[in-house]
Amino acid sequence: MAVAQADRVQFDEPLPFVLLDAVARALRDHPEVRFRVYGTALDPSLAFLRAFEDVRHLLVDMWEVSSFDRLGNFRNLITLGLGATRSKRPSLRFLRELPQLATLYIEGHEKDFPAVAELRTLRNLHLGACPVRDISCLERNANLERLAINFGGLRQLQALAEMPHLRDLELFQIRQLDSSDLHPLSAMPSLQALVLGNLRNITTLEFLTGNPKTTLQFLELEGLVNLASLQPLEQCERLRACCLSTSRARDNSLRPLLAASNLGDVTIGDVYPSVEVAALRHTFRGQRVWYRGEYLKGGPSTFPADLGWRRLFQYADRMRASG
């Protein structure tokens, strides 16, 4: 079976043993290829995965699964995704058996969540619609570099200030999250890339005037419809790139972007007064400005990455790699 040119192998129907074995052998020969099983037709006991225990990148997206314990045998896993299930019974305790896991996606699971904190090799954690209300256990994970929290109702963020190497943070569409909940971000020691999305109760970016004013390099604001002002960006002395979408400041001012001394790349999807846009066109000291479909300065090749909606982490990775 030829999988060398693929980035993913996936199936959603039971396969004959001969074909299962062929897929398993192909993935052993190409461990960089991601493997996904999904749907409702496959055996929810996951017994059919026995031949795949050597894979390094696995996504299980099966609604009828009631236990992930079998995955504790997948000790070569570097990337693991656990999709939502009908049952609330699946436990995360098996994660303790995965000594190499670096990236983990969890959708809708919270049982035995503290096991996540015991993954000493974990660098990237993505939580989607998880009913977890407390992430203080993650303070024990000193190596976590990237955390994305999408949907759900998690508002207790004090633990973020205790994670020494957490540099990338995404908070997206979290119910009732308001400006006061973001105060712990002001004490984060290493924050470099921040995405805030669909958070209508956020009215101020004042938390950026704490520790982030000397660390923040990449910022995306999307769906902050009640944001009062961009003024705190003036103090972000290392800010390199800023993407704004459906987040027009109520003071209608883009002047803080002109005052951010290191800002080089700006993308704006909102409508601003013509005088503000003209000032950005003629006074901005950076290399590239994209405003509502038009480059006011620079162009697609100005930087090695495109700055756009929901792509900030990829952008940051490319910019870091390019120096």
Could you give the topology of this structure?
Elements: E1 8-11, H1 17-29, E2 34-38, E3 57-61, E4 79-82, E5 103-107, E6 124-128, E7 146-150, E8 168-172, E9 193-197, E10 218-222, E11 241-245, H2 255-259, E12 265-268, H3 274-283, E13 288-291, E14 294-297, H4 312-322
Strand tally is 14
CATH C-level of the largest domain: Alpha Beta
- Sketch the topology as an H/E string, one letter per element: EHEEEEEEEEEEHEHEEH
Q: According to CATH, what is the topology of the largest domain?
A: Leucine-rich repeat, LRR (right-handed beta-alpha superhelix)
How would you sum up the major sheet? 14 strands, mixed
Walk across the major sheet and give the strand order: 1-2-3-4-5-6-7-8-9-10-11-12-13-14
CATH architecture of the largest domain: Alpha-Beta Horseshoe
Structural class: alpha/beta
The amount of helix comes to 10-25%
Q: Provide a count of the helices.
A: 4
Please name the fourth-level CATH homologous superfamily of the largest domain: Ribonuclease Inhibitor
